[in-house]
Inverse folding.
């Protein structure tokens, strides 16, 4: 399929690297095209960064992100496949924290940056000026979230929630104090208050899984605790190799309590971590960066049309999509026993979301009209209309985009998506042809851009929508989708179900475990846990059936 997941688990090792040649991180910038707006795109091996700031800062951010990727790569012994068609993370560098919060849609959140693993591809939004956001800089947030992205993209496995966050916190403090090198392992100053002035959660209860039994209103581990335990187990010579063995044991099927036996007396671990934090002295490493890692990105100017639709692309999934009553009530049920239960009923939610969506869609259509001769504008509008399930309008917009640019693969995709939505409401006599037409356009989009994952996703979805069992080629395509955007829950859950239906239990378990053990509670996570339990029951039943009768 042109892509593969790398086996093993993500372990950040305290490695010592041989010196390698380095070069200045502020380099000559390769620029293509003519400037058309203040916004520019910097493209590197793993990122596309958009900014209306100065080019020097844009190039520096690009180099730092590639350095973070390199750090994660060498620290986890990840071998990046040569034929990978990587979905590059799109990073939007906006002026201020206020802009971040506006795009997030929650000015009261206090967010200094955020990461959103959208179906169309992962994005992150950070400020160029963090203002008075304290120690939580935009770069710190971005490094933290990219560690999550990396872990799922290249090292998908089952991890304890505290390790997922501790790993990301360890990466978040990476710094660039020496030219041509990256420093990691420095103290998490932004967590100092948690570690110094609040009661620490016992490391013993983290590693043996007792934290899972705590009620929502009880004291539990915090990010500072997660950082401290992860940092200690990563750098401690006394505990060398134990973290990797522990995670491997979990992924071999052991429960947390069994896996924690690797640490010996877990209460000793609690005492050691406490002494470690109280000492305030933490080891760190400064590996050199090879020149090819921090090479200058290719920077291109962005047209006025593309620039004007940046906000819409960022916020589209939040504004255009409205959950169904079933989805909303399932989410309410998940949050009912947490610190932040949902207090709105579905009708209130639906009314507010619909009003906001319609207001935004009206503005989007006015903007598109101003760029009526630009295929990109109609493509963005078609995407929003399909997401809002206005499939008739989506078909019209995608047709307009294709009339202006016949080879526009995304417009082909949106037309296929629109026809798929319309096929569901077609008369019974017309359904077969309607679904066939939808698949034809999805296959055209796939042929026009084979690495793109969305045509494969909707192609698979078309069979369920028609009430048919998906053929093997569609399931293989879905597997590539999960491989390409492993951060998205729905495709992973669907693939797990497909594999289960085919009695491919080992593959189903590998697919579902990263979701089931996600630190972020969700409807999909609960369903993944239920499916894993069902796999265990089915396998136990099969084994009982296979036992010979004496």
């Amino acid at each position: 399929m042109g892509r593969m997941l790398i086996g093993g688990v993500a372990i950040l090792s305290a490695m010592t690297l041989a010196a390698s040649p380095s070069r200045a991180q502020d380099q000559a910038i390769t620029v293509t095209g003519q400037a058309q707006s203040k916004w520019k795109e910097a493209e590197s091996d793993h990122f596309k960064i958009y900014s209306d700031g100065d080019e020097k800062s844009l190039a520096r951010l690009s180099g730092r992100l590639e350095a973070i990727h390199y750090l994660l790569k060498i620290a986890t012994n990840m071998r990046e496949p040569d034929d990978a068609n990587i979905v590059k993370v799109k990073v939007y560098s906006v002026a201020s924290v206020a802009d971040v919060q506006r795009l997030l849609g929650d000015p009261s959140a206090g967010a200094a940056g955020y990461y959103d693993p959208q179906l169309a591809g992962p994005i992150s939004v950070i400020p160029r000026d963090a203002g008075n956001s304290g120690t939580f800089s935009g770069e710190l947030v971005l490094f933290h979230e990219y560690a999550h992205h990396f872990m799922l993209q290249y090292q998908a496995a089952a991890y304890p929630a505290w390790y997922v966050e501790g790993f990301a916190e360890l990466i978040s403090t990476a710094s660039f104090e020496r030219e041509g090198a990256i420093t990691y392992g420095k103290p998490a100053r932004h967590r100092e208050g948690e570690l110094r002035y609040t009661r620490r959660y016992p490391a013993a209860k983290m590693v043996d899984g007792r934290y899972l039994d705590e009620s929502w209103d009880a004291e539990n581990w915090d990010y500072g605790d997660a950082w401290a335990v992860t940092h200690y187990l990563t750098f401690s010579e006394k505990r060398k190799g134990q973290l990797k063995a522990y995670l491997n044991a979990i992924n071999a099927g052991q429960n947390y309590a069994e896996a924690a036996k690797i640490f010996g007396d877990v209460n000793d671990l609690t005492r050691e971590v406490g002494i470690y934090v109280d000492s305030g002295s933490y080891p760190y490493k400064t590996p050199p960066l090879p020149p090819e890692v921090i090479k200058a990105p290719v920077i291109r100017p962005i047209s006025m049309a593309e620039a004007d639709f940046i906000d819409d692309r960022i916020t589209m999934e939040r504004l255009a999509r409205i959950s169904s009553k079933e989805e909303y009530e399932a989410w309410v049920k998940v949050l009912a026993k947490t610190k932040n239960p949902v207090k709105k009923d579905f009708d209130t939610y639906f009314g507010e979301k619909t009003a906001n969506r319609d207001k935004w869609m009206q503005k989007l259509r006015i903007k598109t009209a101003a760029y009526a001769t630009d295929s990109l504008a109609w493509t963005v509008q078609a995407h929003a209309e399909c997401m809002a399930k206005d499939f008739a309008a989506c078909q019209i917009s995608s047709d307009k985009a294709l009339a202006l640019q016949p080879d526009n693969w995304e417009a082909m995709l949106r037309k296929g998506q629109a026809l798929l939505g319309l096929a569901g409401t077609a008369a019974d006599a017309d359904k077969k042809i309607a679904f066939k037409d939808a698949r034809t356009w999805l296959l055209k989009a796939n042929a026009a851009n084979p690495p793109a994952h969305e045509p494969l996703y909707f192609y698979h979805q078309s069979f369920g929508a028609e009430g048919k069992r998906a053929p093997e080629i569609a399931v293989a395509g879905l597997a590539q989708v999960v491989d390409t955007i492993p951060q998205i829950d729905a495709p992973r859950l669907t693939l797990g179900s497909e594999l289960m239906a085919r009695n491919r239990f080992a593959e189903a378990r590998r697919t579902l475990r990263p979701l089931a053990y996600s630190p972020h509670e969700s409807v999909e996570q609960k369903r993944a846990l239920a499916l894993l339990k069902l796999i265990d029951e089915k396998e136990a039943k099969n084994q009982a059936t296979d036992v010979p009768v004496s």
